[in-house]
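Possible regression after last week's pipeline update?

I re-ran a chain I had predicted before the update to compare outputs. Posting the input and the new output here so someone can diff against the archived version. Not blocking, just want to make sure nothing changed silently.
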Amino acid sequence: MEANTRWVALTAVAPIAWGANYFVTHAFLPADHPLYGAALRALPAGLVLLALCRRRPHGVWWGRSAVLGLLNVSVFFVLVFVASQLLPTSVASTVMAVSPLIMMLAAWLLVAERPGVAHLAGAAIGLGGVCLMLLGGAGGISVPGVLASAAAVLASSFGHVLAKRWNTSAADAGVLASTAWQLTAGGLLLLPVAVAVEGPPPPMSPSAFLAYCYVGLVATALAFVVWFAGLRRLPAGTVGLIGLLNPVTGVLLGTAVAGEVLTGRQLCGLALALSGVALGRPSGKVRQPGFPDRAATGRADLPRRTAGRP
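New output (post-update):
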C-alpha cells in the first residue's frame, strides 16, 4: 500500500507539469510555429535522456520507438501546442479530462486490463467535475482548439497504453531508454516537417528560451519518465485518473497567474475531479498480469530474454 502511494505521488508529477505547460506555451512561445514548438520540446528532451541511458534501440524497438514517437510525441505535441494557443489555460487542460475513459478502453482492448468499478466510478465523477470546470469558466471557447485537444487525448491515450504493453513484454527496454527513444524519434520526425512547412526557426527571446527549457526538461523529459514508470507499475485506469490533475493544475494556474476567473461552479468541479483521482487509487500491491514482479529482482531496466507476448 505504501509503495503504491509513492508511485501515485511520483506519477502525479507528470500531469501537474503538463497542466502548467499549457500556460507556459500560451504565454511565452510563438503561436505561429506549432511544428517548431513541438520539435524543440521533444528533441532536446530525448537527447538528454539518451545521454543518461546511453543505449540505442535494439530489435523490435526501432519500429516501436517510431510508432510511439509518432503518437506520443509528434502528433500529440503539435496538437497540444495548437490547443494551448487557441484556448484559455483552464479550458485547454480541462478537455484532456476525457483521457481516463479513453485510456481504460484502450487498456481493455490492448492489454486485457478490465477497468474496475472504482476506476469507472472515479472516471465518471472526475469527468463530471471537469465538465463543470469547462462549462463554468469565463471567456470564449475555440472549437478548433477543443478539437485539437480532444484529438491529442485520443492519440496519446492509445500511445501510452501501447507503451505499457510493450514495456511489460519479453522485449522490455526499460522506462528510461524507451522514453528517450520515442522522444528522439518524435523530434526527428517533426524537424524536417517544421523546416518544410514553417521555414526558418522562430527567433529565440530570453523568455522563450526559458520556456523551452521548462517544456523540454520538466514537462517532457521528467514528466514522461515518471508517467511511463507509473504506467508500468500501476493499472492504466489508475494512471488515467491521476491525469485529472492536469486540468486541475491548468484551472488553478490560469486563475492564479493568467487572471482567468474561477467561478463557484468550477470550484465544485475541482472537488469532484480530485474525488475521482482518490477513487482510482489502488488499495493493494499491483502486479502486471502474466509477468513477475521485476522490482523484486532488481532488474527493472534490463531487457528480458524469456518468451512472452509482444
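Follow-up from reviewer: compared with the archived run. Residues 284-310 have pLDDT under 50 and may be disordered. Marking as no regression found.
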